[in-house]
Amino acid sequence: MTTTTHNAPDTHARHDLASDIEMQAADASTAHPHRAGYVAIVGKPNVGKSTLVNALVGRKVAITSPKPQTTRRRILGILNRPNAQVLFVDTPGIHIPKQALNAYMMREVELALSDCDAILFVVDISRSPDEDDRRVMERIRPIAAPKFMALNKADLMDAADGPEHVRQFFELFGDENNAVFTSGVKIKQENLDELLDKIIAALPPGPQYFPPDQYTDQPERMLAAELIREQALRFLEQEVPHAVAVSINEYVIRPNKTLYLAATIYVERESHKGILIGKGGQMLKRIGSESRREIERELGHKVYLELWVKVREHWRRDERYVERLVSALE
Ligand SMILES: Nc1nc2c(ncn2[C@@H]2O[C@H](COP(=O)(O)OP(=O)(O)OP(=O)(O)O)[C@@H](O)[C@H]2O)c(=O)[nH]1
Ligand SMILES: [Mg+2]
Question: Are 277 and 288 in contact (CB under 8 A)?
Fold first, then answer.
């Protein structure tokens, strides 16, 4: 595994364990064994995969943004239910890779698909299916794992075109019974529950692989780096946000519980650096204060944040840098 978002047992161990438990369940004639498994969440960019994972897990596991290609690697979101532990694996939106970064992102999707117990295909129901949705479906069609479709952004569904979009998505997916209307922003909890019940019923019997208080596999410093990138995506325009990567240089929790955090925001060109810093440093200040607020809210520390800006020319084209920068390790 290259970037390693998972700390879970390897597949074989997991499946051996699962079959043991299956046998125990059968011995005890239990009708409702505890279930557990990985659910790969896939779809084209910007359909709301990360927003949906956050809504399902009930925590901010992954950053979101109106700009496509926000998610760059696999991100685990853990949901505990009395009868199940669902391991959602958020993935980058599927697209045709042009640079080393995009190729990396697509490898991350492949890794998620290569070891999953179920697949959740997310689509944006406010539009009709296009080539990109079809490409996703073609990719997952040969995979044997049970598949579900989230007809997402249902809150944006238009009364006039909506039914036709739904018909076309059903036709593409081919299994109406495993499709559910969802919305990650205006949540109709019943729909999310309906989706969850269907997914859980399809998972293999298995134990809690992760402790019940753990909701992701990302270390705090990585969450912090992502929260900073989210604010950069929010305030920057055009190609600059896509050229941003964030690395944590120092992450120290002081005895008074204050978190001292020093991070570097990488961009690809001197011109990006100028935009990121802004007139009189205003842009960097804004990104800094909004990120600090978010990190305080999500991680529960008082935060002292120091931001640096560096140029790493064309890092997205260079495999050597991509992995390190995407994992916030540089
Ligand atoms: N109205 C509405 N907007 C949504 C919904 N889900 C997500 N969005 C918005 O759609 C945009 C994209 O959401 P993300 O969750 O980042 O999408 P994604 O599929 O993870 O995108 P990538 O990581 O780029 O592949 C954001 O602006 C979200 O706020 C929804 O159910 N309804
Ligand atoms: Mg995403």
Answer: no
Of the candidates 313, 225, 212, 302, the residue with the CA atom closest to the CA atom of residue 264: 225
- Among all bound ligands, the one having the nearest atom to the CA of 54 is 1
Check the CA dihedral 291-295-298-301 and report its sign: negative
The region, left, alpha or beta by phi > 0 then psi within -120 to 50, assigned to residue 121 is: beta
Sheet holding 303-311, edge to edge: 245-253, 259-267, 303-311
- Is residue 91 in contact with ligand 1, taking CB distance under 6 Å? no
Q: Is the dihedral of CA 182, 186, 191, 197 positive or negative?
A: positive
Question: Mind giving me the DSSP string for 128-164?
Answer: ---HHHHHHHHHHTT--S-EEEEEE-GGG--TTTHHH
- Using the mean position of ligand 1's atoms as its centre, give its distance from the Cα of residue 121 in Å: 14
Question: pTM of the entire structure?
Answer: 0.90
Domains, the chain, in order of start with CATH, read 11-202 (3.40.50.300), 220-326 (3.30.300.20)
Q: Between the CA of residue 326 and those of 1, 21, 203, what are the distances in Å?
A: 15, 37, 30
Closest-CA residue, ligand 1 atom 30, reads: 153
Q: How many CB atoms lie within 10 A of CB 309?
A: 16
Question: pLDDT tens across 80-131, in order?
Answer: 999 999 999 999 999 999 999 999 999 999 999 999 999 999 999 999 999 9
CB of residue 102 inside a 6 A radius of ligand 1 = no
pLDDT in tens, 132-165: 999 999 999 999 999 999 999 999 998 899 999 9
Burial status of residue 269 (CB atoms within 10 A of its CB: 0-12, 13-18, 19 or more)? middle
